[in-house]
UniProtKB/TrEMBL annotation, chain A:
Listed pathway(s): Lipid metabolism; fatty acid biosynthesis
Organism classification: Bacteria, Bacillati, Actinomycetota, Actinomycetes, Pseudonocardiales
Protein name: Acyl carrier protein
Keywords: Cytoplasm, Fatty acid biosynthesis, Fatty acid metabolism, Lipid biosynthesis, Lipid metabolism, Phosphopantetheine, Phosphoprotein
Function: Carrier of the growing fatty acid chain in fatty acid biosynthesis.
Annotated gene: acpP
Carrier domain span: 9-84
Family, as annotated: Belongs to the acyl carrier protein (ACP) family.
UniProtKB/TrEMBL annotation, chain B:
PANTHER family: 3-OXOACYL-[ACYL-CARRIER-PROTEIN] SYNTHASE 3, BETA-KETOACYL-[ACYL-CARRIER-PROTEIN] SYNTHASE III
Organism the protein comes from: Herbihabitans rhizosphaerae
Name used for this protein in its record: Beta-ketoacyl-[acyl-carrier-protein] synthase III
Pathway: Lipid metabolism; fatty acid biosynthesis
Gene Ontology CC: one annotated term: cytoplasm
Annotated signal sequence range: none
Pfam families the UniProt entry points to: ACP_syn_III, ACP_syn_III_C
Gene: fabH
Transmembrane segments: none
Length: 85, 323
């Protein structure tokens, strides 16, 4: 149902809150072009915690092999937007 | 034709605890000299500051004898007060003979029912449940349960994904009859379809899919712990002490966080023995309990929730009242 789909802005906002909660990075810092590892200093285990919370919140599956491809916040937003139920 | 079957005492308890670690302390800085890692990286990822490595000649059985003897002494019991010895381990050098029979003999438990139990890092909780049920069914009058591991024998010494984590130790508990039930029902199981997450690569060295194991442990183990509480008939707020297998401090903290979200108290004591002991597989839970009690962090009569999880994948948890 297209009208129920989350907008990229909504996903970004939700994801930023999750990143803040898991990794202690201010939500304002979490913008589309930022790299999780290089810019936000988030390690592989925190990425798993972020993925688990994103799965719960957005109703999407993010397997570990897909997680490795999500380099930037924008990658994650696009993945969630296009795979959310 | 109907055969007679045994019945035993209705209730069991942990009557004593003991543990031992090798003398050699290995710091993060020492490991940084032989592989590409550093103190901060190790502390951030796994929460370990130092661990103990056994000497070349020190065996799983050697450490088990020390920990088991200490647990008997702590219980104020002699070796003849028990008739069964279970050595939980997954790192004995050879499967034949098992460790338990030698350990029983060296401790002085005559003609013991003796067997090794391999449920990897869940081994202590599996063995504790087995011991308690053996007594309640009348098969045993008292059981010495020991988790003993020499993981340095199965770890690539220069693989920074495993060599920084695993270590050597033994922990033990004496299980016997009790007036009151002090070992709750076990909840246990396995996920053999995910066996590829932790295995022996080329039969030689432990390999684990770090992210997948982390995801499994941080999402699937808190529900196991909750089930153990339900089976024991108590609430999350009744738990004084939480002792998850000391796999990784971040896993321990994630499990504690999930339990607190379900009603566990903020002042619940959470074992962090991994900080100075590393991940010692089946030894980690009894050793953490023993260390915490010796340090005065926990005391007799407190309600402890213990849960083991590891290769297999295997998991088991129960509630115990501390001796």
């Amino acid at each position: 149902m297209a009208e129920n789909k989350l907008s990229n802005e909504e996903v970004l906002e939700g994801l930023a809150k999750i990143v803040e909660e898991v990794a202690g990075v201010s939500a304002d810092e979490v913008t589309a072009e930022k790299s999780f590892v290089d810019d936000l200093d988030i390690d592989s285990l925190s990425m798993v915690e972020i993925a688990v919370q994103a799965e719960d919140q957005f109703g999407v599956k993010i397997p570990d092999d897909e997680l490795a491809n999500l380099k930037t916040v924008g990658d994650a937003v696009n993945y969630v937007s296009s795979n959310a139920a | 034709m109907t055969l007679r079957q045994n019945t035993g005492p209705a209730a069991t308890a942990i009557l004593g605890l003991g543990s031992t670690q090798p003398d050699r302390v290995v710091t993060n800085d020492e490991l940084s000299e032989i592989m590409d890692t550093n103190d901060k990286w190790i502390r951030d990822r796994v929460g370990i500051v130092e661990r103990r490595f056994a000497a070349d000649e020190q065996t799983v059985a050697d450490m088990a004898v020390v920990a088991g003897s200490k647990a008997l002494a702590d219980a104020g019991m002699s070796p003849t007060d028990v008739d069964t010895v279970i050595v939980a381990n997954c790192t004995s050098k050879a499967p034949i003979p098992n460790a338990a029979a030698q350990v029983a003999d060296r401790i002085g438990v005559k003609a013991a029912a003796a067997f090794d139990l391999n449920a990897a890092c869940a081994g202590f909780c599996y063995s504790l449940a087995t011991a308690s049920d053996m007594i309640r069914s009348g098969s045993s009058k008292g059981v010495l349960v020991i988790g003993s591991e020499k993981l340095t024998d199965v770890v690539d010494p220069v693989d920074r994904s495993t060599a920084i984590i695993f270590a050597d130790a033994a922990g033990a508990a004496v299980v016997g009859p009790s007036d009151d039930a002090k070992i709750g029902p076990v909840t246990w199981g396995s996920a053999g379809d995910q066996v590829d997450m932790i295995y022996m690569r080329e039969g030689k060295y432990i390999f684990q899919e770090g992210q997948s194991v982390f995801r499994w442990a941080t999402t699937k183990i808190a529900p196991v712990a909750m089930k153990a509480l339900e089976l024991a008939g108590i609430e999350p707020s009744d738990v004084d002490v939480l002792v998850p297998h000391q796999a990784n401090l971040r896993i321990v903290e994630a499990i504690a966080k999930r339990l607190r979200a379900k009603g566990a108290r903020e002042d619940m004591i959470v074992a962090d023995d991994i900080v100075h002991s590393g991940n010692t597989s089946s030894a980690s839970i009894p050793m953490a309990l023993d260390h915490m009690r010796s340090a005065g962090t926990v005391h007799s009569g407190q309600v402890a929730l213990i849960v083991g999880f590891g290769a297999g994948l295997s998991y088991a948890g129960q509630v115990v009242i501390l001796p």
